[in-house]
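pasting Serine protease for the record, 260 residues
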Amino acid sequence: MKSFLFSFCGALALFASPLSAAEHAEAMMRATFKLFNKDSTATCFLMRDGADVYVVSAAHTFEKASGETSILVLREADKEGAWKRQDKTITIREGERALWTKHPKEDLAVMRVVLELPEGATLPLDALKADGFPRFGDPVMLLTYPARVEANGAGFPLARKAVVASFPAEPMEKHPEFIIDATAWDGDSGGPVFIDAGKGKPQIVGLVTARINHVENITSERETRKIETPMGLSKALAAPVILETIRLAKSTVEVPASDR
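structre below
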Protein backbone atom coordinates (compact mmCIF):
# COMPACT_ATOMS: atom_id res chain seq x y z
CA MET A 1 0.00 0.00 0.00
CA LYS A 2 2.80 2.41 0.88
CA SER A 3 4.47 1.69 -2.43
CA PHE A 4 1.22 2.37 -4.28
CA LEU A 5 0.65 5.66 -2.43
CA PHE A 6 4.21 6.75 -3.10
CA SER A 7 3.85 6.00 -6.81
CA PHE A 8 0.46 7.70 -6.96
CA CYS A 9 1.75 10.86 -5.21
CA GLY A 10 4.77 10.91 -7.45
CA ALA A 11 2.57 10.75 -10.52
CA LEU A 12 0.45 13.60 -9.20
CA ALA A 13 3.58 15.70 -8.68
CA LEU A 14 4.68 15.08 -12.24
CA PHE A 15 1.32 16.16 -13.62
CA ALA A 16 1.01 19.15 -11.25
CA SER A 17 4.37 20.64 -12.14
CA PRO A 18 3.52 21.73 -15.73
CA LEU A 19 0.24 23.21 -14.53
CA SER A 20 2.02 25.30 -11.91
CA ALA A 21 4.59 26.42 -14.47
CA ALA A 22 1.86 27.37 -16.91
CA GLU A 23 0.06 29.45 -14.26
CA HIS A 24 3.06 31.54 -13.23
CA ALA A 25 4.22 31.97 -16.82
CA GLU A 26 0.76 33.09 -17.90
CA ALA A 27 0.58 35.64 -15.07
CA MET A 28 3.92 37.09 -16.22
CA MET A 29 2.83 37.02 -19.85
CA ARG A 30 -0.31 39.04 -19.12
CA ALA A 31 1.88 41.87 -17.77
CA THR A 32 4.50 41.77 -20.58
CA PHE A 33 4.13 43.89 -23.72
CA LYS A 34 5.83 45.18 -26.84
CA LEU A 35 6.92 48.85 -26.72
CA PHE A 36 7.91 50.46 -30.00
CA ASN A 37 8.11 53.40 -32.35
CA LYS A 38 9.84 53.75 -35.73
CA ASP A 39 13.33 53.88 -34.18
CA SER A 40 13.08 51.55 -31.18
CA THR A 41 11.39 48.20 -30.56
CA ALA A 42 11.71 46.40 -27.23
CA THR A 43 9.93 44.48 -24.50
CA CYS A 44 8.49 45.98 -21.32
CA PHE A 45 6.35 44.91 -18.38
CA LEU A 46 3.99 46.79 -16.09
CA MET A 47 4.40 47.07 -12.31
CA ARG A 48 1.97 48.70 -9.91
CA ASP A 49 2.68 50.44 -6.63
CA GLY A 50 -0.60 51.39 -5.04
CA ALA A 51 -2.48 53.43 -7.63
CA ASP A 52 0.66 54.10 -9.70
CA VAL A 53 1.51 52.00 -12.76
CA TYR A 54 5.03 51.91 -14.22
CA VAL A 55 6.35 50.77 -17.58
CA VAL A 56 9.65 48.95 -16.92
CA SER A 57 12.23 48.42 -19.66
CA ALA A 58 15.88 48.90 -20.57
CA ALA A 59 16.84 52.60 -20.60
CA HIS A 60 18.14 52.44 -24.17
CA THR A 61 14.61 51.49 -25.25
CA PHE A 62 13.41 54.98 -24.36
CA GLU A 63 16.62 56.77 -25.35
CA LYS A 64 16.67 55.35 -28.91
CA ALA A 65 13.00 56.11 -29.49
CA SER A 66 12.54 59.28 -31.52
CA GLY A 67 9.85 61.89 -31.05
CA GLU A 68 7.43 62.28 -28.18
CA THR A 69 5.45 59.03 -28.32
CA SER A 70 5.74 55.26 -28.48
CA ILE A 71 3.21 52.46 -28.91
CA LEU A 72 2.39 50.10 -26.05
CA VAL A 73 0.79 46.92 -27.41
CA LEU A 74 -1.93 45.97 -24.94
CA ARG A 75 -4.37 43.06 -25.26
CA GLU A 76 -7.82 42.22 -23.96
CA ALA A 77 -10.04 39.15 -24.23
CA ASP A 78 -13.59 39.52 -25.54
CA LYS A 79 -16.65 37.72 -24.15
CA GLU A 80 -15.86 34.64 -26.25
CA GLY A 81 -12.31 34.43 -24.92
CA ALA A 82 -10.62 35.69 -28.10
CA TRP A 83 -7.73 38.07 -27.45
CA LYS A 84 -7.62 41.38 -29.33
CA ARG A 85 -4.61 43.62 -29.81
CA GLN A 86 -4.96 47.19 -28.50
CA ASP A 87 -2.22 49.59 -29.57
CA LYS A 88 -1.99 52.51 -27.14
CA THR A 89 0.02 55.66 -27.83
CA ILE A 90 1.90 56.81 -24.74
CA THR A 91 3.86 60.03 -24.32
CA ILE A 92 7.55 59.46 -23.52
CA ARG A 93 8.81 63.05 -23.94
CA GLU A 94 7.54 66.59 -23.81
CA GLY A 95 9.77 68.38 -26.29
CA GLU A 96 13.30 67.48 -25.20
CA ARG A 97 12.25 66.56 -21.66
CA ALA A 98 12.22 62.83 -20.98
CA LEU A 99 9.27 61.57 -18.94
CA TRP A 100 10.98 58.36 -17.88
CA THR A 101 13.28 57.92 -14.88
CA LYS A 102 16.62 56.25 -15.57
CA HIS A 103 18.68 54.41 -12.97
CA PRO A 104 21.76 56.56 -12.20
CA LYS A 105 24.23 53.85 -13.27
CA GLU A 106 22.44 51.01 -15.06
CA ASP A 107 20.62 50.47 -18.36
CA LEU A 108 17.17 50.49 -16.81
CA ALA A 109 14.31 52.99 -16.81
CA VAL A 110 10.73 53.20 -15.61
CA MET A 111 7.94 55.56 -16.56
CA ARG A 112 4.65 56.20 -14.80
CA VAL A 113 1.60 55.92 -17.05
CA VAL A 114 -2.10 56.56 -16.65
CA LEU A 115 -3.94 54.00 -18.74
CA GLU A 116 -7.15 52.01 -18.72
CA LEU A 117 -5.75 48.50 -18.42
CA PRO A 118 -7.24 45.03 -18.79
CA GLU A 119 -7.37 42.77 -15.75
CA GLY A 120 -4.04 41.16 -14.89
CA ALA A 121 -2.00 43.62 -16.96
CA THR A 122 0.14 44.68 -13.98
CA LEU A 123 2.09 42.92 -11.25
CA PRO A 124 2.60 44.22 -7.70
CA LEU A 125 6.03 45.26 -6.44
CA ASP A 126 6.24 42.14 -4.28
CA ALA A 127 6.57 40.15 -7.52
CA LEU A 128 10.15 41.52 -7.68
CA LYS A 129 12.98 39.66 -5.97
CA ALA A 130 13.87 42.34 -3.45
CA ASP A 131 17.45 41.33 -2.66
CA GLY A 132 20.43 39.83 -4.43
CA PHE A 133 20.82 37.67 -7.52
CA PRO A 134 18.96 34.60 -8.68
CA ARG A 135 20.94 31.48 -7.78
CA PHE A 136 23.72 30.23 -10.05
CA GLY A 137 22.49 27.32 -12.18
CA ASP A 138 18.81 27.92 -11.47
CA PRO A 139 16.38 27.55 -14.40
CA VAL A 140 14.62 30.76 -15.40
CA MET A 141 12.18 31.86 -18.09
CA LEU A 142 12.16 35.02 -20.16
CA LEU A 143 9.40 36.67 -22.17
CA THR A 144 10.45 38.84 -25.11
CA TYR A 145 9.87 39.82 -28.74
CA PRO A 146 12.98 38.38 -30.45
CA ALA A 147 13.69 40.16 -33.75
CA ARG A 148 10.41 42.00 -33.05
CA VAL A 149 8.41 38.78 -33.60
CA GLU A 150 5.02 38.48 -31.87
CA ALA A 151 3.56 35.09 -30.97
CA ASN A 152 0.30 35.90 -32.76
CA GLY A 153 -1.91 38.70 -33.99
CA ALA A 154 -2.92 39.61 -30.44
CA GLY A 155 0.66 40.72 -29.74
CA PHE A 156 1.69 38.19 -27.10
CA PRO A 157 5.42 37.72 -26.31
CA LEU A 158 7.40 34.52 -26.80
CA ALA A 159 8.68 32.40 -23.90
CA ARG A 160 12.13 30.83 -23.63
CA LYS A 161 13.93 28.84 -20.96
CA ALA A 162 17.47 29.48 -19.73
CA VAL A 163 19.68 28.99 -16.70
CA VAL A 164 21.56 31.54 -14.62
CA ALA A 165 25.01 31.09 -16.15
CA SER A 166 27.17 33.38 -13.97
CA PHE A 167 28.15 33.03 -10.33
CA PRO A 168 28.10 36.38 -8.46
CA ALA A 169 31.69 37.29 -7.56
CA GLU A 170 30.81 40.69 -6.06
CA PRO A 171 27.92 42.07 -4.00
CA MET A 172 24.97 43.09 -6.12
CA GLU A 173 25.38 46.73 -5.10
CA LYS A 174 28.76 46.81 -6.90
CA HIS A 175 27.91 44.67 -9.92
CA PRO A 176 24.16 44.06 -10.44
CA GLU A 177 24.48 42.21 -13.77
CA PHE A 178 24.21 38.47 -14.26
CA ILE A 179 24.34 36.25 -17.36
CA ILE A 180 21.78 33.80 -18.73
CA ASP A 181 22.40 31.18 -21.42
CA ALA A 182 19.96 32.56 -23.99
CA THR A 183 20.66 34.59 -27.11
CA ALA A 184 19.11 38.05 -26.96
CA TRP A 185 17.84 39.54 -30.21
CA ASP A 186 16.81 43.04 -31.17
CA GLY A 187 13.46 43.51 -29.47
CA ASP A 188 14.37 41.45 -26.38
CA SER A 189 15.72 44.32 -24.27
CA GLY A 190 13.51 44.97 -21.27
CA GLY A 191 12.05 41.47 -21.15
CA PRO A 192 11.47 39.98 -17.69
CA VAL A 193 13.59 37.09 -16.39
CA PHE A 194 11.49 35.18 -13.86
CA ILE A 195 10.93 32.02 -11.84
CA ASP A 196 7.98 30.29 -10.22
CA ALA A 197 7.18 31.86 -6.84
CA GLY A 198 4.55 29.22 -6.12
CA LYS A 199 0.75 29.36 -6.06
CA GLY A 200 0.70 30.38 -9.72
CA LYS A 201 2.67 33.58 -9.16
CA PRO A 202 5.89 34.66 -10.91
CA GLN A 203 8.91 36.16 -9.19
CA ILE A 204 10.85 38.58 -11.39
CA VAL A 205 14.59 38.07 -10.82
CA GLY A 206 15.90 40.35 -13.56
CA LEU A 207 15.50 42.09 -16.90
CA VAL A 208 17.25 41.41 -20.24
CA THR A 209 19.57 44.22 -21.36
CA ALA A 210 22.03 42.99 -24.01
CA ARG A 211 23.38 40.14 -26.13
CA ILE A 212 26.94 38.93 -25.57
CA ASN A 213 28.91 38.48 -28.81
CA HIS A 214 32.29 37.08 -29.70
CA VAL A 215 34.08 39.89 -31.56
CA GLU A 216 36.74 39.28 -34.21
CA ASN A 217 38.65 41.90 -36.18
CA ILE A 218 39.78 40.42 -39.48
CA THR A 219 42.34 42.40 -41.49
CA SER A 220 43.15 41.80 -45.12
CA GLU A 221 45.27 43.76 -47.58
CA ARG A 222 42.38 46.05 -48.53
CA GLU A 223 40.07 46.16 -45.56
CA THR A 224 39.42 45.44 -41.89
CA ARG A 225 36.20 43.77 -40.88
CA LYS A 226 34.60 43.44 -37.48
CA ILE A 227 32.62 40.22 -37.10
CA GLU A 228 30.30 39.74 -34.13
CA THR A 229 29.01 36.22 -33.49
CA PRO A 230 26.29 35.59 -30.86
CA MET A 231 27.56 33.30 -28.10
CA GLY A 232 24.16 32.14 -26.87
CA LEU A 233 24.55 34.36 -23.78
CA SER A 234 22.81 37.53 -22.63
CA LYS A 235 23.21 40.12 -19.90
CA ALA A 236 20.47 40.81 -17.38
CA LEU A 237 20.08 43.27 -14.51
CA ALA A 238 19.04 41.95 -11.10
CA ALA A 239 15.53 42.80 -9.92
CA PRO A 240 16.53 45.03 -6.95
CA VAL A 241 17.69 47.61 -9.52
CA ILE A 242 14.10 47.76 -10.81
CA LEU A 243 12.84 48.40 -7.30
CA GLU A 244 15.46 51.14 -6.78
CA THR A 245 14.41 52.87 -10.00
CA ILE A 246 10.69 52.78 -9.19
CA ARG A 247 11.44 54.32 -5.78
CA LEU A 248 13.53 56.99 -7.50
CA ALA A 249 10.68 57.71 -9.90
CA LYS A 250 8.24 58.14 -7.00
CA SER A 251 10.50 60.76 -5.44
CA THR A 252 10.61 62.87 -8.62
CA VAL A 253 7.91 65.01 -10.17
CA GLU A 254 6.63 63.34 -13.33
CA VAL A 255 4.02 64.11 -15.90
CA PRO A 256 2.16 60.82 -16.47
CA ALA A 257 1.47 59.69 -20.01
CA SER A 258 -2.19 59.28 -20.84
CA ASP A 259 -3.80 56.82 -23.18
CA ARG A 260 -5.02 57.61 -26.65
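The chain is about 20% helix and 45% strand.
The longest helix spans residues 2-30.
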